[in-house]
Amino acid sequence: MSSQFLYRLPVEQTQWKVEGQTTTAFTWEYEDGSADLLKLYGKGKKQQWDAAERLDWSLPVDPDNPMGLDDRTIAIYGTDLWNRLDAKERAHVRRNLQAHTLSQFMHGEQGALIATAKIVQTVPSIQAKFYAATQVMDEARHVEAYARLLHEKVKLAYPITRTLALLLESTITDKRWDMTYLGMQVLIEGLALAAGVNAYVMQDEARHVAFGRLALREYYPQLTDAERDEREEFVVEACYHMRDRFNQGEVWENLGLPVKECVEAVEQSEYMKLFRTRLFSRIVPTVKDIGLWGPRVRKAYEDMGVMEFAQVDALSILENDAKVADEFDAKMFVDNALRAQ
Question: Is 280 strand, coil or helix?
Fold first, then answer.
């Protein structure tokens, strides 16, 4: 079935074309380079997985709660507005909010697919090209998995939000290879990693953020003050965009609920405050680690209430994230053995 029949809001065009300038970088140096990037490339090769096989698509999904979330995760839960809704209306709210969240991950993964293909083309070193090539396959698999989930299980989808579209556009259209890294590998992938929707995707995202971290922490010390200031301005603006895109105003409007009242509930929701804070748990330590830690960035993170993550060791948390899929597989193996007994 065409995706056009799934979207709850009108999609005026089936394609979105973004104009941009790109400089293609060939290199004739095949040996002298980063051992850490080659190690990451090795992991990327070994940890490939098939979305059609590794995920159990036969498992039933509750149509009224596809992600199996507690209602307390809904920003308007417990408000007078929520209490006025009957069971059918609450199920409708629940399903649409989850479809919207999954849809943005799907669209973001396609953005990552395109951005990483650009990194293969523009990045100077052969080791970075090797690893980025494995990530292109990762991102294609992620788009495949989210698209199948929405088509077969949720049977509902939303178009890309304006804030995510703007962030993707600025990331993809910039001519400089490091800006694509910064926007995609550090910010967008860092947010996706912190959200932790799927254990297998998390393992991939941990490598992707590590990829950006390795490349940029070597490159950014070479920048002039003006160049570093420009990148810090980009980080601040992008982080505010990412934080604010979770008010899901288009969902409330589509559901016929009072948008202003719902958005205010989002702003006041303790769960949403915690969720938004958690989203920056990987971004903040990575941004600090790559050297974009001027007064403007620190002030923005203080304003967002996420400066606590500046004390987190970026390498340790990424290594821990990379183990999530293996731990999930081990638990599933034990559960299956117990069921067999």
Answer: coil
Task: Give which of 237, 341, 253 is closest to 297, Cα–Cα.
Answer: 237
75's CB contacts (< 8 A; 6+ apart) are: 248, 262, 265, 266, 269, 271, 272
The CA angle 181-187-193, to the nearest 5 degrees, is 110
Phi-psi region of 259 (alpha: psi -120 to 50; beta: other; left: phi over 0): alpha
Q: What is the 3-state secondary structure (H, E, C) of 48-64?
A: CCCHHHHCCCCCCCCCC
* CA-based nearest residue to 241, from 180, 173, 164, 188: 164
At 306-332, the pLDDT tens digits run 999 999 998 888 888 777 666 666 554
Per-residue pLDDT tens digits for 21-45: 788 999 999 987 788 899 999 999 9
Q: How far apart are alpha carbons 261 and 242 in whole angstroms?
A: 21
Convert the pLDDT of each residue in 180-218 to its tens digit.
999 999 998 888 877 766 778 888 888 999 899 998 998
3-state SS, residue 256:
coil
Q: Return the closest-CA partner of residue 323 out of 189, 206, 186.
A: 206
Read off the DSSP letter of residue 1. -
Q: Please state whether the predicted TM-score (pTM) of the whole model is above 0.85.
A: yes
Cα dist. 203→199, 215, 324 in Å? 7, 19, 6
3-state SS assignment for residue 216: helix
Residues in the chain: 341
Residues near 273 by beta carbon (within 8 Å), at least 6 away in sequence: 305
Per residue in 267-282, pLDDT (tens digit) is 888 888 888 788 898 8
Q: Cα 193 to the chain's mean position, in Å?
A: 6
